[in-house]
Fold this protein.
Amino acid sequence: MSGAPFVLDSTLAADGHFVGDLPLSTVLLMDDARFPWLIVVPRVAGMRDLIDLRRAQRQALLDEVDACAYALRALHAPLKLNVAALGNVVAQLHVHVIARHAGDAAWPKPVWGVGDREHYASVALTAEVARLRVALGLANAQ
Amino acid sequence: MSGAPFVLDSTLAADGHFVGDLPLSTVLLMDDARFPWLIVVPRVAGMRDLIDLRRAQRQALLDEVDACAYALRALHAPLKLNVAALGNVVAQLHVHVIARHAGDAAWPKPVWGVGDREHYASVALTAEVARLRVALGLANAQ
């Protein structure tokens, strides 16, 4: 890969709201109020698949994915967590962490491509990001 | 969780062909010839989400998921690897590792729920399992 600096993919940036930066990854809240849905993007340029990361980076990413899963479990008590690195549409390596409930808008199917997105209302968005920042230990940062 | 021993979920067992046992996980080849598709099932009873595993087990699982990804990349040269722990239908913790190509039967959508499965022909199945066992370093085991 080139020595170009990391730049967050424009589609991810457009689809998500910034929650915070963990040591390796930027955490976004997907702008779809139907599902508590985080996107974890390691700030490493040129990465496409998990196995493109160096081993130490992979382990760091997984620790951060785990932290997001714990945060969603604490805030939303999901029946199931979905964790997935797909990237067929957006090539930049990113990991979805989604809290699923029986009866949610896609259950039991995966969430991708199901129905129409529901944008967060401004107040709900601000509150959710604030709760996520606390749950992720980011509340006093920035 | 109870002290019950690990038993492979019956749906996973029915949907997949046994490839081999890695130290922590059983590797299955999904019986769908449209996609090179492995399912990695840690042999730990009562697990549902990745964060249910102890940290050392999580790291071991991820190393084995990586090994499956490398094997699929070596054998199938995918454009993209899809790695996902969903489990909305089958609760037992399992990780999908799928080699994706532009123009495959679901591209660029996720594979779940798309179209009808194509069962492997017997000869193709035997050959694929044998190649996977070599790629996973299991060729001389059992």
